[in-house]
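Hey, weird one. I pasted the Putative phosphoglycerate mutase sequence into the form twice and got a warning about non-standard characters only the second time. First submission, copied straight from the form history:
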Amino acid sequence: MTDFYFVRHGQTEWNLERRFQGGQGDSPLLPTSYQDMHRVADYLKDVTFDHAYTSPLRRARVTAEVIVSDWQDAPQLSIRSNLLEVGLGQWEGELTSQVAKDFPKAYDQYRNHLEEFEGEEFDGEGYTAAVTRFQRLITNLVQQYPDGKVLLVAHGLILSFGLNALLGTARSEIRQRGGLSNTSTTILTTEDGQHFDVKAWNQTDYLNKEQDDSTTI
């Protein structure tokens, strides 16, 4: 069995301001987010990981580096572009409220009809391309670590899309499962790389604080 531990990056300035970041935007991490990273590390300290992977974007990479640096027997940390956030084109850096005004149809698809969300209207990457690259990495890791434990640090949208795809969730029902908060941990297991079970979803109890819209996607 392969156990996957997925951690979303620490909270950033744009998260707090409710701006889209996407695959190119990369605002600074908030000073308070570092304390949350250490709390993730403490939560996972008893897990022996075979390897750790992170998105190349700084907000995820630094989160991963802080977490593994807290462990005495730290796993090797590697960067994988498959874990990049979903590219959001013209939305990146913009306030969500402004995007809702400028792209009402696409924003409604993003919020309420993900089965129609593909990003063409705003030069974005869209659901299909993002999930395809994410699943390709997971398939390879299942083959590489058939009895292992793997840590992956990435972003809210790619994790929400990718994990729900692994679980066979219909695109129209993704929002019903609930979003993923900054520095949350989600744990999925698989025996064969085809069927996945949820051991924990958006676990944030260790952060000892209430989550809100600025921390969850």
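That's the output from the first submission. The warning seems to come from a hidden character in my clipboard, not from the data itself. The helical segments are 13-17, 31-43, 58-69, 96-102, 104-112, 127-144, 156-166, 174-177.
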